[in-house]
User: Fold these one by one.
Assistant:
Number 1:
Amino acid sequence: MERSRLIFGLAFTILLTIVTTPSHCKYHSKTVPVDRLKEKVTQLHFYLFDILSGTKPSAVEIARPNVTTDKSATPFGSLYAFDDHLREGPETNSSIVGNAKGLYLSASQDPANFTIVMYADFGFTTGKFKGSSFGVFSRNPVAESPEREVAVVGGRGKFRLARGFARVKTHYFNATNGDAILEYKATIIHY
């Protein structure tokens, strides 16, 4: 009994010492009221070139399911890594304004309802947003409608704390080789 009181007393003393000892470190936090931050809305318009064919594709398949009867260029369960050019216009000679880098997964069992789930970082290399990017993590039902909407879930640089959406419209698609040119009209809310 005396021994258990001694252990309890020692444990209580150590706990009390830890709880009441002031902590000194060089890190600290500061809470900034949200009402002091001014929200901005930025509209962006550009074209993404997703090229799977040729000797230097911008998107490559990195995984494919073992069992599939789908003979399309992007069968269900296929995972792609991409580093696609963002251009001012749909022409191959239009100015490059940035790159979209990330992954997309072919996520529809029905080839006629081609859908991808994508994670992408849209980074800008020229102009007023040079060095900034916004992130998309969303379902993109490519075959569902001519114009789809994907979610903007974050950003960096001038797009810190970004949220919003991007309307995506297929400008060109080759079902044989998977090459596509996509028009993006993004609405980004940021601080």
Number 2:
Amino acid sequence: MSDLTPQSEAPTPTTDKITQAARETIYLCNFRVSVDGEWLCLRELNDISLTPDPEPAHEDPKDPIAIERLNLMNMAKLSIKGLIESALNLGRTLDSDYAPLQQFFVVMEHCLKHGLKTKKTFLGQNKSFWGPLELVEKLTPEAGEITASVKDLPGLKTPLGRGRAWLRLALMQKKLSDYMKTIINRKDLLSEFYEPNALMMEEEGAVIAGLLVGLNVIDANLCMKGEDLDSQVGVIDFSMYLKDGGHSSKSTEGDGQITAILDQKNYVEELNRHLSASVNNLQAKVDALEKSNTKLTEELAVANNRIITLQEEVERVKEESSYLVESSRKASRPDGTADGQVLGETRKQLKEETQLRLDVEKELEVQIGMRQEMELSMKMLEKDICEKHDALVELRQQLDDMRRLNHELSHKSQSSESSVKQKHEIISRLEEKTNQMAATIKQLENSEKDVVKQARNLNSAAGKLLQKQQ
């Protein structure tokens, strides 16, 4: 039983094959999705240790922004290469439903979004690469036709949709590489839209612009009238770029388990990203409702003050009316000394004050009705805020559950990888034992042949001796 224990001191042919296959495979074990879902960050292949090191390596930590640029450039290389090869093998004009072409646009969208400066609006933060693409019209007059066509397309309501339509039209015109080189060379204009360490501001952007020249060999006919470019979710499908390594057939089951766990992890992270975006949207709505609630409270206070003022005016009018009525009664007595002219003026003034009182009472009723409506709207608004708050609490609880599930899946993935590694080492030991037993069997067969040959020689010699004696 001691011979079956895994030993990792010396590399075996099987481990060499596994190492070679791993070097030809894109590893996605250390990638993350940002909160706003703008880009994906992958771990570099050089950072993955394929063989155990006897001593820990002392390397300086790399800049995460530089790693993001390098990963995006590598994804752009893979998508452009895969699109050109598949298009040439297909041998026909590409349409909007072609999967490699869709993935190319998603990768280009992530490249253009990297390092964009955030613009704050009333509804939250906004990032769009439509602004840098509009610069092409100023730098290259022939690009004005594409910009005008994008602005005239029906159904495009957001800058993101216009930017996606611009990329498709530039690809059909076979000018995408030229336009990208034009704006990359003017970093003084791009600095208005991008951070200094963005992909478009560094040499990786120039490399991607050079790679886009190869797309001039393909023909694309894309119809954008019925396509919803505003609400599409750009997610990179890494399964299109994964290669099949040279693993042993006996480890297929363990690799399938790791793949399933990674798929579950990717799904949970994508769901986590959507929940985070929903929480942010609900938080923005709650803030807007709180601002509206404050404004309505102020308007209600003003209306209450107005009602109090009107009530005071009504009381004053009542007192004046009672005084005028009393004066008119005194003037109507037989023993009174007032003449008819004073009595007429008093009655006229009484009529005017009565009309003013009716107007004030009518306005008071209107203000009371408005106050009741405002109180009703305040109650409805408070109810809506309570419902939004409950939904926000529930979504945050779901987000915490997703994070906990993601953590459990990560531990499960690590344990599965360790078990598969132990199985590989046991398989390599068994293969060595099998080779040794095969060599021993071959030696026994050779010795058996030699014994048979000697027996035949002895038989022939014995026969000759018998013949001589006879």
Number 3:
Amino acid sequence: MGRKIHPLGFRLGVNQKHYSYWFAQKKDYPNFLEGDRKIRNFVENYIQRHVRNVSNYGGVGHIEIQRKTDLIQIDIHTGFPDLLIEEQSLGISHMKSDPGNFLGLESRNLRVTLTSVTQPYGDPKILAEHVALLLRSRVPFRRTMKKTIELVGRTSSRGIKIQIAGRLNGSEMARVEWAREGRVPLQTVKADVSYCYHPAQTIHGVLGIKIWIFRDTQ
């Protein structure tokens, strides 16, 4: 079996679910799909610009979007929602009004909620943002992978695989390095494997970060 299929799409309907819930006519489907992408990019960029203490911020795990007849609900799953609420000028009302102005929607037709992730470092996207932060701070990639595996070891995950590709430590030739701890069955459909790809912009170029986490199904 090849390894070119997306791990989440491979398990969709088994132990993975959709992050967008709506029904549209054939002519409206491209507009809704593009709108969901804009909403997710806007929310992530908005939080990165306004959160001051980024080192203690867990990032955004995933964003669920529900479209109804006259309502769009955005559910932001984040590692530390209290930080977003306590941060000055970053209340729910501001986050609600800004996407509404960006998308041309009224605030009463847009509802934004924050949901806490039980184990932030058990989410691959939050973990990938943490890895990108360390790499941008010029932390050696081997130490970064070791620290990341230690963080995941404190959660209920049964295994992790992390892969970093690019000009590692500023070397002239790009290469791929990876590390694994525990068991990560990529070809087992029933295995609850979460996956994320996240690019990290460094002074030497872009590094690609891929993280697979095998969660405990018990």
